[in-house]
TrEMBL record:
Its EC number is 2.4.2.8. Pathway: Purine metabolism; GMP biosynthesis via salvage pathway; GMP from guanine: step 1/1; Purine metabolism; IMP biosynthesis via salvage pathway; IMP from hypoxanthine: step 1/1. It catalyses: IMP + diphosphate = hypoxanthine + 5-phospho-alpha-D-ribose 1-diphosphate; GMP + diphosphate = guanine + 5-phospho-alpha-D-ribose 1-diphosphate. Its cofactor is Mg(2+). This is Hypoxanthine phosphoribosyltransferase.
Length: 178
């Protein structure tokens, strides 16, 4: 796997230190609020697993699976729900846990949907942010790292479903795409 990497952008140590830091901030923010952390599958899974272990408060978790309609040329914001929550969010403090915000389409859609479902609050924590990819004006409330305008893999992010298990984040060698 490491042999497939052109470069490593964020090391395992850097990720773990950042997750600890975010866990402490979020514990303070959500203390006494019994938040519902919603992991967006599949990419948000490693971050969710690590983050909740750094949060020393009462909280619940649930997962959603979504996919964007069509391809990049289709205007973003159209999202298909593949798996919805098992939890009623009315009156709940919802925190989305994401791998990356690129166009912003996925989270803009989910945020609106959860306001409609009468969540008490809807916020976003993402381990990665790619601000250069933004098509919809949406900001995460907490960001781990900004990444450049490159396709990145690892720590949940895939290339054709592989590389999600890497503990670091990097860019693949060009020959991998051939
Ligand atoms: P939005 O709606 O913000 O969606 O464009 C973010 C989703 O797009 C995928 N994505 C990536 N996946 N490497 C990946 O493996 C990347 O560099 C990348 N950029 C965007 C990802 O599925 C994310 O949830
Ligand atoms: Mg994804």
């Amino acid at each position: 796997m490491k042999k497939d990497m052109e470069k490593i952008l964020i090391t395992e140590e850097e990720i773990q230190a950042k997750v600890k830091e975010l866990g402490a901030i979020l514990s303070k923010e959500y203390e006494g609020k019994n938040p519902l952390l919603v992991g967006v599958l599949k990419g948000g899974l490693p971050f969710m697993a690590d983050l909740i272990k750094e949060m020393d408060i009462y909280l619940e978790i649930d997962f959603m699976d979504v996919s964007s309609y069509g391809n990049e040329t289709v205007s973003s914001g159209e999202v298909k729900i593949l798996k919805d929550l098992d939890t009623n969010v009315e009156g709940r403090h919802v925190l989305f846990v994401e791998d990356i915000i690129d166009t912003g389409g996925t989270l803009a859609y989910l945020k609106d949907m959860f306001k409609y479902r009468k969540a008490a609050s809807v916020k976003i924590v993402t381990i990665l942010d790619k601000p250069s990819g933004r098509k919809i004006d949406i900001q995460a409330d907490w960001v781990g790292f900004e990444v450049p305008h490159e396709f990145v893999v690892g720590y949940g992010l895939d290339y054709i479903e592989n590389y999600r298990n890497l503990p670091y984040i990097g860019v693949l060698k060009p020959e991998i795409y051939q």
